[in-house]
Amino acid sequence: METDVFGKALLDYLNGDYSEDITTHSSLDEEDTIPIPYLFRGYTEMPKIEQKALDLCCGTVLDIGCGAGSHSLYLQEKGLEVTALDHSVDAIETCKLRGIRNTVLSPVLDYKGQKYNTLLLLMNGIGIVGRLELLKTYLEHFKTLMGKNAQILLDSSDIIYMFEEDETEEDWDETNDDGEMPVDENSYYGEVDFTMTYKGASSNSFPWLYLDYATLQQVASECQLHCKLIKEGEHYDYLARLTFK
């Protein structure tokens, strides 16, 4: 059975049992930590990109991959009708305990039947796609959750800088001769596999996607979505807004 490392850490923190942070291990041979208190931050502690995204939210909002629910909580306090969605049982329990009224426990691809004015995916939220070949699948599903004149607000990072200087984005050929995105899951540099450890427990390995803006724009166009660059961050990150063409 898969250990919900992330959700357990959130619930521990909320219950006053915080003693260590989450450690992440990636296929890029890097180890890092996720400071758990940071996941409970307020608006003023958030990066400018996240603040901008929250400022742009309107109408009914679906917070996809809500985690500890900090974005949902802020929007709810602003008076917006927000639904926090996550596939982690403990993450959703954390959101409920923090006072978020509307929560959904589900993988986003299994969630159907509702439409929203804003779909929100923050903290490299589009990373849930995992593999570039699945980006179209996710965007097409997102479209079924969008009402008329709705928007998708998402952020990501271009990690090309992590590779050797003699490797450029052009070296990772983003299209084939037919102008379509490649289907080889190993063909895109932004696909990273992670495991997380916390208090002696380890998660299963899971894929995460770091997506450069040009690729997002191209695939969005293929899905009949207009993609606009809203804001660039200080660490190769960006905020994008997708709307119906």
TrEMBL record:
The keyword Transferase applies. Keywords: Methyltransferase, Transferase. One of its GO terms (biological process) is methylation. Signal peptide: none annotated. Residues 58-94 form the Tellurite resistance methyltransferase TehB-like domain. InterPro entries: SAM-dependent_MTases_sf (IPR029063), TehB-like_dom (IPR015985). The keyword Zinc-finger does not apply. SUPFAM superfamilies: S-adenosyl-L-methionine-dependent methyltransferases. GO terms for molecular function: methyltransferase activity. It holds the Pfam family TehB. It comes from the Bacteria. This is Methyltransferase domain-containing protein. It comes from Maribacter aquimaris.
